[in-house]
């Protein structure tokens, strides 16, 4: 019996059909950039970055250069959040908390500045502004709130002192 030779075109066709059949069996994955995933998840891009740093699944790790951004699957991140028992970002209590964070942390930073004395008071003002920004953005990220867009009066006062 004579063996049938398979052409390159036949092999390419079989591979294409096999790939399509395999993709039809798997659930579709919507890979998104960090900013697109943030919109899908209803959080800031910075919050998505922190989730990834905290162990959220990454579909493709990013690299330097154009077109090499990290890609994530928002559905996989939702599953990861659910497995960690994190409340959803639209929870009314979290949103109310997020609204109070900037002013509350700024008031505490101002109190520390006022209570400080000595030759390093300007350094304390600088440090308190940094602490306010870092603490506020971290708490807003946990609450799933949008990026910081307000500057409390206490922070304006610290800026004026440093100017």
How are the SSEs ordered, and which strands pair?
Elements: H1 8-25, H2 34-41, H3 45-53, H4 74-83, H5 92-115, H6 121-143, H7 153-162
Summarize this structure briefly.
This protein has 163 residues and is mainly alpha-helical.
Task: Give a structural overview.
The chain is mainly alpha-helical and 163 residues long. It has helices at residues 8-25, 34-41, 45-53, 74-83, 92-115, 121-143, 153-162. The chain folds into 2 domains: 34-83, no CATH class; 92-162. It has 7 helices and no strands. It is elongated, with a radius of gyration of 25 Å. The mean pLDDT is 78.
Instruction: Give the percentage of residues in beta strands.
Output: under 5%
- Strand segment tally: 0
Whole-number tally of structural domains = 2
Number of helices: 7
Terminal CA distance reads 93 Å
**Largest sheet, if any?**
none
Q: Give the structural class.
A: mainly alpha
What share of the residues lie within helices?
55-70%
H-E order: HHHHHHH
Instruction: Provide mean pLDDT, rounded.
Output: 78
> Can you tell me the overall shape?
elongated
Rg result:
25 Å
Low-confidence stretches: none
């Amino acid at each position: 019996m004579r063996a049938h030779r398979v052409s390159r075109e036949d092999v390419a066709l079989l591979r294409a059909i096999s790939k399509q059949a395999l993709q039809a069996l798997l659930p579709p994955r919507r890979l998104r950039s960090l900013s697109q995933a943030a919109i899908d998840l209803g959080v800031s891009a910075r919050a998505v970055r922190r989730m990834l740093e905290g162990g959220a699944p990454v579909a493709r790790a990013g690299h330097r250069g154009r077109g090499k951004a990290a890609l994530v699957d928002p559905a996989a991140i939702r599953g990861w959040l659910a497995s960690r028992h994190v409340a959803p970002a639209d929870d009314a209590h979290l949103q109310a908390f997020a609204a109070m964070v900037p002013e509350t942390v700024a008031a505490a930073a101002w109190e520390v500045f006022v209570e400080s004395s000595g030759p390093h008071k300007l350094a304390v003002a600088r440090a308190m502004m940094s602490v306010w920004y870092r603490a506020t953005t971290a708490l807003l990220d946990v609450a799933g709130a949008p990026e910081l867009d307000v500057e409390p009066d206490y922070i304006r006062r610290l800026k004026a002192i440093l100017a």
